[in-house]
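Bug #77: duplicate submission created two jobs. Keeping one. Sequence:
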Amino acid sequence: MTAQPSARGDVAVVVPAAGAGVRLGPGGPKALRLLDGEPLLVHAIRRIAASPSVAMIVVAAPPPDVDAVRTLLAQIAPVTVVAGGAERQESVAAALAAVPPALPIVLVHDAARCLTPVAVFERVAAAVRDGADAVIPVLPVVDTIKEVSAEGTVLGTVDRAVLRAVQTPQGFRADVLRAAHAAAADSHTDDAGAVEKLGRSVHCVPGSDLALKITRPIDLAVAAHLLTLPPEQS
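Kept job's structure:
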């Protein structure tokens, strides 16, 4: 990829935030659960808005909560709020439809990864800007990984040196992401996977330990502790 001069304001970030968060336990939609007294979505939008490359943020909210989410986020940053769908893929598509053609780069970010540092958004955007069709932030896998049969028998040990844990934001050339969604024949939880099915390559950049996904109650406790640490600089 050939490096290009840095640009600002050429990125739209879409945030699918309509999920129920069943594994987080009883309560409202996951994105509206509280972390240190504020909804996860507020923490996420605050960090997205701080990224110099971001020109537009689109949130796909639970349909009954669109007006409430719009009011909630108005005090944080200018945000376009649309009604999300029953599945993540539907929410991403609804948010993507609100992004104008003039913005060439689209990042898709999970509200549940609400502590992702600004530096990760900038790394992903820069890699797309430099020519990649799709970019994902990743971390090395540190656990030993076993392939296991349906009966619980170990079939083998996977070489973790070639494995990476994938985070968000995932970044795309806008036309490539739109084509991937238009061609998707089945549901997917990973937009980069849809791009792979188009035969396009996906580039990796370093992620961050702060970009953990809040899925279970213990993740909320970990995130609350991370909020007490000094801001990450890389």
